[in-house]
């Protein structure tokens, strides 16, 4: 009988004090303080150390890619170059090395992925679409859509590449 009364009293005390909180009910980083008859919370306490500011561990270097095209339908490309000018120059050189005549820079891009797709609109009318995006998959989908919208049929991706940033640790 005493055990039953003890359990009932204990249960009553637990249910009667639902608003008891550690540290006076203050949020993390604050401690209770009496202002006369009123309790409030002030900054500090709770044994919480201030958050340490994170320090960078390195830096990102942007890179460029480029595509060059020739009048005889030869192309040249490059990725991972440090400057737009360098990327364009190398793409044109690669175009010439492949036998291109009148090679010109047609599409420079920075920190992106690029895709090219083509298809015939007529027997002597080949359409090419070039598009850059965040991934090869995204740029490939964009060029297929663009190629189809140009009226070309049986559009196929014939080139894709990424020029991604390089992380250099300190």
Comma- or semicolon-separated keywords:
170 residues; 10 strands; single chain; alpha+beta
| Total DSSP E strands | 10
Q: What integer is the average pLDDT?
A: 86
Structural class: alpha+beta
Which percent range describes the beta-strand content?
35-45%
Number of helices: 3
> How many angstroms separate the termini?
73 Å
Main β-sheet, spatial strand arrangement: 5-4-6
Weakly predicted, low-confidence segments: none
Walkthrough of the structure:
The chain has helices at residues 2-16, 84-97, 136-149, and strands at residues 30-35, 38-43, 58-61, 64-69, 75-81, 104-110, 113-122, 125-133, 153-162, 166-169. The chain is α+β, with helices and mostly antiparallel strands. Among the domains are: 58-110, no CATH class; 112-165. It is elongated.
Gist?
Helix content is 25%, strand content 41%. With 170 residues, the chain is of the alpha+beta class.
SSE blueprint:
Layout: H1 2-16, E1 30-35, E2 38-43, E3 58-61, E4 64-69, E5 75-81, H2 84-97, E6 104-110, E7 113-122, E8 125-133, H3 136-149, E9 153-162, E10 166-169
Antiparallel strand pairs: 1-2, 3-10, 4-5, 4-6, 7-8, 7-9
